[in-house]
């Protein structure tokens, strides 16, 4: 340890600070290809007090702090910077309270998303946000990026389930935001401000989240299409008909082929896209609206439904088998989803780039995954050119650069196209209020 990290170790209980270079390196990056900086060390926080002590030390010594959950982020938001301390919250795994009467839970940031959902279901409830990484991602990371998931189409993103937060500010002060009631309009919405701030305004050490009644009956539809645009058109038809699906997911041929090569799902040669829809109740109307499909199946048992959803959850891991991935995350109005899908296909062909696309189609959130050769330090120029075309098209269609993954490092070069100079000035002003020394996750998100 050097003098700085020795002082940090002295401020914390034994064993909290790691400085071995090989161990520190394993905490320095998320799931992106972005090369990390060199941290001074890693703090393994067990409690809010550990976070307070770390941030007080960082403020005193002017050391940057990069908060980290499970490292499942896809935008470079948890990537270490030179000379920082990585603050890992993965050990803070307590569900402090679960109240069936009030339909809320109070949880620490290291709680795995699926574990909270399972705990809620023991009481006939559920935690609605469910990113595809829900078995490994943490509540803290979900809050930091305002993560979405497969059930977003009905229940919204993480912010829609966040009622209140316990946050440690950059100077070590503790702030409690929000409430534990279903309604509350006192003061500014600081809870909403922190959710999605990517660790740049404070470190979340607990959250009061909303739980919902788990559905008693769920039906799942799987429809195969010979055209990706036809599948996107079916999404628009389902939404326009007012079916209110709880899940509406789309996968293109490249994604399905990757899954089939890995798990042998029996993919037909003519299938260019698959739509997986779920309803809390009968799904016959949604099945009927997939009129252009070459094949439609409706689950008859919970096991069949789980199997169909399981295919969708395999998508990202299957694509990682193809090469390095630039995973992107644009969101457009649902009415123009077919146009966005067409743009992605055209960009892939024009630039000679493999793009595997999945979508939380019910809310217009499209994930084009740009696959490139392993071993490259970053995507080649043709990948960036195709990505640029996709991002600009999303904005032209009235959409946004990111629906759930966040800005991190990967989207910063395009951020100004969406926010504009006035919003950028306000963002910087908010950052100055909460983190005047620019110590929290510097260089990210804004």
Automatic annotation (TrEMBL):
Cited Pfam families: FAD-oxidase_C, FAD_binding_4
Cofactors named for this entry: FAD
Record-annotated FAD-binding PCMH-type domain positions: 35-214
From what superkingdom does this record's organism come?
Answer: Bacteria
This protein's record includes keyword Cytoplasm? no
InterPro entries in UniProt: FAD-bd_oxidored_4_C (IPR004113), FAD-bd_PCMH (IPR016166), FAD-bd_PCMH-like_sf (IPR036318), FAD-bd_PCMH_sub2 (IPR016169), FAD-linked_Oxase-like_C (IPR016164), FAD-linked_OxidoTrans_Type4 (IPR051914), Oxid_FAD_bind_N (IPR006094), Vanillyl_alc_oxidase_C-sub2 (IPR016171)
Gene Ontology MF terms: FAD binding; oxidoreductase activity
Per UniProt, the keywords (alphabetical) are: FAD, Flavoprotein, Oxidoreductase
What family is it from? Belongs to the FAD-binding oxidoreductase/transferase type 4 family.
Please identify the protein, giving its name as recorded. FAD-linked oxidase
What species is this protein from? Answer: Microbispora bryophytorum
């Amino acid at each position: 340890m050097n003098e700085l990290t020795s002082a940090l170790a002295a401020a914390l209980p034994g064993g909290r600070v790691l400085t071995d270079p090989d161990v520190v390196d394993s905490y320095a990056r998320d799931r992106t290809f972005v090369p990390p900086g060199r941290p001074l060390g890693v703090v393994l926080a067990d409690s809010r007090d550990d976070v307070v002590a770390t941030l007080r030390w960082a403020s005193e010594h002017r050391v940057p702090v990069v908060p980290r959950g499970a490292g499942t982020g896809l935008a470079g938001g948890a990537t270490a910077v030179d000379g920082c301390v990585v603050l890992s919250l993965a050990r803070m795994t307590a569900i402090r309270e679960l109240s069936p009467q009030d339909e809320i839970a109070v949880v620490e940031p290291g709680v795995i998303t699926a574990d909270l959902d399972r705990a809620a279901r023991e009481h006939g409830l559920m935690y609605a946000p469910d990113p595809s990484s829900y078995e490994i991602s943490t509540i803290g990371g979900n809050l930091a990026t305002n993560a979405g998931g497969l059930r977003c189409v009905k229940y919204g993103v993480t912010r829609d389930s966040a009622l209140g937060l316990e946050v440690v500010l950059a100077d070590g002060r503790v702030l409690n935001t929000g409430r534990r009631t279903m309604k509350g309009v006192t003061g500014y919405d600081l809870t909403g401000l922190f959710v999605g701030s990517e660790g740049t305004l404070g470190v979340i050490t607990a959250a009061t989240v909303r739980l919902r009644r788990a559905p008693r009956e769920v039906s799942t539809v799987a429809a195969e299409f010979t055209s990706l645009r036809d599948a996107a058109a079916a999404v628009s038809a389902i939404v326009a008909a007012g079916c209110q699906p709880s899940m509406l997911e789309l996968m293109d041929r490249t994604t399905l082929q990757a899954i089939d090569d890995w798990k042998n799902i029996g993919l037909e040669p003519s299938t260019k896209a698959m739509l997986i829809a779920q309803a809390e109740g009968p799904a016959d109307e949604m099945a009927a609206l997939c009129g252009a499909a070459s094949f439609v199946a409706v689950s008859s048992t919970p096991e069949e439904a789980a199997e169909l959803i399981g295919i969708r959850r395999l998508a990202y891991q299957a694509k990682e088998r193809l090469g390095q991935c630039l995973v992107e995350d644009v969101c457009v109005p649902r009415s123009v989803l077919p146009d966005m899908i067409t743009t992605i296909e055209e960009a892939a062909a024009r630039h000679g780039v493999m793009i595997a696309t999945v979508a939380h189609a019910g809310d217009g959130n499209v994930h084009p995954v740009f696959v490139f050769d392993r071993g490259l330090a970053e995507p080649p120029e043709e990948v960036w050119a195709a990505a640029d075309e996709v991002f600009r098209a999303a904005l032209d269609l009235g959409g946004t650069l990111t629906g759930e993954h966040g800005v991190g490092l990967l989207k910063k070069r395009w951020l100004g196209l969406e926010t504009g100079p006035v919003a950028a000035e306000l963002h910087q002003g908010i950052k100055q209020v909460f983190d005047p020394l620019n110590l929290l996750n510097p260089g990210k998100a804004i």
